[in-house]
Amino acid sequence: MKSSKGKGLIGLLMIIAVVAVFGWFGYSSMGDIKLGLDLAGGVSITYQAVEENPTAEQMSDTIYKLQQRVEHYSMESEVYQEGSNRINIDIPGVSDANAILQELGKPGSLVFTDEQFNVLMTGDMVASAKAGMREGNGVQAQEYVVQLTLTDEGAKTFAEITQANIGKQIAIIYDGVVQSAPTVQAAITGGQCEITGMKTFEVAEDLAATIRIGSLSLELQELRSNVVGAKLGQEAISTSLKAGAVGFGIVVVFMVAAYLVPGLAASLALALYVGLVLVMLSAFEITLTLPGVAGIILSIGMAVDANVIIFTRIKEEIGLGKTVKSAIKSGFSKALSAIIDGNVTTLIAALVLFWRGSGTVKGFAATLALGIILSMFTALVVTKLALNVFYVLGFEDAKFYGVKKEKAAVDFLSKKKLCFAVSIVMIVAGFGFMGVNRASNGTVLNYSLDFMGGTSTNVTFKEDMSLEDISSKVVPVVESITKDAGIQTQKVAGTNEVIIKTRTLTVEERQALNSALIENFGVDEAEITAESISAAVSSEMKKDAVVAVVIATICMLIYIWFRFSDVRFAASAVLALLHDVLVVLTFYAAFKWSVGSTFIACMLTIVGYSINATIVIFDRIRENLKEMGSRRNLVEVVNASITQTLTRSINTSLTTFIMVFVLFILGVSSIREFALPLMVGIVCGTYSSVCVTGALWYVMTTYSQNKKAKEKAEAKEAKKAEKAEKAGKKAEKAEKAEIKAKEQ
User: How crowded is the C-beta side of 739, counted as CA atoms within 13 Å?
Assistant: First the structure.
């Protein structure tokens, strides 16, 4: 006994040591985590089109292509229009503007010519260019190449010009200088080709960068470049960190109070999870922005959820009379399918969003995917190890784990019509509010400058304003004019210049802002300039986000259908997701919350959170259907399943809500603007999972069963009628035969 307790103590000390080591590494690596432009600032570059009056289509196409280019530096980079012929590029996590400009290249004119320098093809027909290497031809071990992918139009044109110039050189000319002149070996018809002959990878990369930047629709010239401070201000980082620490502490206290020894084991696992997340963010150089923080919050919620599912199962097993040791083993085994299905479903969504999304969507997906993988590991491995260690140390009594007795099922389905009615009213009300907003403001929602564009005001103050001064003194003055919390400010490094981005200001509001800055800070009016800027979230990025969400939803539907062998489970889950999104939209429309770049991440968080809660209930329905077999009654199955998982639904929602609520209480105005819809989404997701999804599945299933029963009854009646008809014909035939016999 003493020997086993000694081993248990050694095991506990090892777990604590691992948690401490990763906690220390995580804390130490916080300074190395790349923060986005909203949290830490970066480099801002402004280009101006050489062409005097570029078309809107040319500007839009150039912005989209530049967005693809600069995501090489960070997925959170933003490209948007300023005025009629300028393009701003904001790249987070970097501080050397000259190095970026050199690597990005000077956006000039790119053409492909024949040996007489006749233009055969323009650079905008190139979709992408990247450096690569392959096995050499024997003279050298590696050969460096530039791989080109052409547009559909470019592929057709390139096939024609290579066919006509076999054995001749085609020159790649950038701004009048020949960059490369490869010889055509054969006609290239596949829309892809390689330029060979590069001596080093750096040479290949330089040529690829030149081709990439030269494939833009417009020729650009650099106007200015600055190192800028965080959009949300330094205070946003400190308050978010403080909120995270406080929220985590409250969650730990709650878990221990609610689940006793298992809660303590979960707290150790969660502490390790936080350390691992920080280490991985630094190791994989993931740029962390506010949407990324949302991804981490969601994954923390899912980490807590996995533990809650396990502990609820353990309590149930103890309530059935099993020993603690047996209950722990059985609890983990029975919780496994719900944990895997919930996490894998969300992970599928994260991978699709990373693959098809862009900008903030990719950042959200990266942190979410990382968090899901780590949360599954800590819940299924670390928590289990810690629980077994505590058991060996002498915590063998059921009182340390809690007992959950079988309770009478709550009749949730009896309220399904009321729940459906409430949901429909909420959704219809949302469309009503959107209609009112469109009639009064011209837009259905209160789109911020990220979606609608706005006004960028550059102010040079008399004295050097710190980031704290900007947040505490300048922002309130601007908010008093705009009556809007969606203000972004950036400080230009090494100067007294501050960039203030707001919604589009009227002439009167611009004058009022200028007067307020002059009155409050003694600014020279000549040092205040303003320009209209386009949306940072371009139409292409919105399209990418919508396509990514649609594909992710389809993939989740297919996975749920496959895992549960019933399309009605998948259909119910997807309808619940749509329900949650529309209800949260109602709040956005009713209270005119600002819809900015974080709106997409907020909605994605709600979708991920809701699907996980739904999967847990569906997993229990599936289990109960198997256990009850032919004795099953669907009403009893659904009501029992929701009741059995109700504690899990409430506790998981409560812990996640606590994290976001603390963020709301302690955060700056922009953080609160982000946290408030998340809280609504958490409540809504819990409501839909408990009150809507099970009822939807029940309605679909009974409708299908009734339809089959009706069809079966109709088929039986038809068969009976057919049999009667045949009997009648047979009798008629016999009667005729009898009459004929008598006549004879």
Answer: 6
